[in-house]
Amino acid sequence: MRITEAAKRLGMSPRMLRYREALGLLPPVREQGAHRRFGPEELAAVAQGVELEKRFDVSPAELAFALRILSEPAVASAVRDLGVRIGRIQVPRRALDFEKEKALRLLRPNPTPQATPRRPRP
């Protein structure tokens, strides 16, 4: 089906559906250069996206960015670094403390082993 009918079934305007497509919230077009046709899978994908937007109170742009974070490691890393810097993401302390202690142990000079005195035999 064409975009007008798909939008009508989804309860939104064709413009909003095109906006979601521009954000990358629709499955890719199957044939290169072909006009998009909406089938059951495409309608279900859009409906699922709309449901997530409502459930988590986010905009289509926010949902598209969340998908980018999940699919692009560089973006995920940059967002994680920001989260750590502003305190929204906590770095596990135990692992860092263990590694720090290990490094400090390795940096300490080794004491010379001392011989233990022998007990006299009775």
TrEMBL record:
<dbReference type="InterPro" id="IPR000551">
    <property type="entry name" value="MerR-type_HTH_dom"/>
</dbReference>
<dbReference type="InterPro" id="IPR009061">
    <property type="entry name" value="DNA-bd_dom_put_sf"/>
</dbReference>
<feature type="region of interest" description="Disordered">
    <location>
        <begin position="102"/>
        <end position="122"/>
    </location>
</feature>
<protein>
    <recommendedName>
        <fullName>HTH merR-type domain-containing protein</fullName>
    </recommendedName>
</protein>
<dbReference type="Pfam" id="PF00376">
    <property type="entry name" value="MerR"/>
</dbReference>
<feature type="compositionally biased region" description="Low complexity">
    <location>
        <begin position="113"/>
        <end position="122"/>
    </location>
</feature>
<feature type="domain" description="HTH merR-type">
    <location>
        <begin position="1"/>
        <end position="48"/>
    </location>
</feature>
